[in-house]
Specification:
The complex is a heterodimer of chains A (107) and B (137). Chain A has helices at 25-37, 55-70, 82-90, and strands at 2-7, 12-20, 43-53, 75-78, 98-100. Chain A has 107 residues and is α/β, with parallel strands linked by helices. Chain A has a five-stranded mixed beta sheet with strand order 1-2-3-4-5, with helices on one face. Chain A contains three helices and five strands; from the N terminus they run ββαβαβαβ. Chain B has 137 residues and is of the alpha+beta class. Chain B has helices at 20-32, 38-59, 92-96, 109-116; strands at residues 7-14, 67-74, 78-85, 119-125, 128-136. A five-stranded antiparallel beta sheet of chain B has the order 1-2-3-5-4. Classes of the chains: A alpha/beta (107), B alpha+beta (137). At the A-B interface, helix 2 and helix 3 of A face helix 1, helix 2 and helix 4 of B.
Amino acid sequence: MEIKVHNEDKGKRVVISGEIDMHTSPELRKVLLKCTKDKVSPIVVDLKDVSYLDSSAIATLVEALKAVMTYKGHLVLCNLSKRVQEIFAFAKLDKVFQIVKDDVKSA
Amino acid sequence: MKQVARHKASLIITSHPMYLSMVRVFLEKILKLIDLPTSIIEDLKSAVDEACSNVIKYAYKNDYTKSIKIEVECTRNIVEVYIEDRGDAPIDKDFKGRELSDIRPGGLGMHFIRKAFDKVIFSRRGKVNKLKLVRRF
């Protein structure tokens, strides 16, 4: 897994590629917790090049969402593959997260 | 009578999360031999990944030096996966997972396992935990 963080006009874009699993999700958690500690908003998590995502990845994103909500910020997921969308729908999280195709401004 | 192609393979990994990707590749390779649709292969792969993650977290309490054996037997009609470890016996809550409506981190792994497999059977003999996962087609 590789994570790149880009500064945007407002907020940050976290671009992830590769597989997010129990081995790699702690690295994502560290990046997202740094953003939430700094009260970044919006945090746009770009999942375009994520080929696999497990329950630890989802737990990490839920934790970040809850942290963002404490300072009334926004966390947006974008560019989800069909498979990743299905996983979020199955976990009943597709209505909990703000999910967009690819639009930072929608946050 | 036409013979149904039966495939059988096993993999032993160290209980470190870095080996989970190897488990997924192993599953994918053997399941492709029976021409399953990609979506089903992905579900089964996720489920076995989650089951091995649970072994690392709950049975071995994040001790990354133990071992996990994954054995797969499959035909076009059935996939059976056996996961063995020598860790602590799981307690009930390890098999339940959280309610899907309870939005909080964690507790989703068992849901992925039950989504992919028709049967999830746990047994413990001596010091060995064995999880049997069955999916029929």
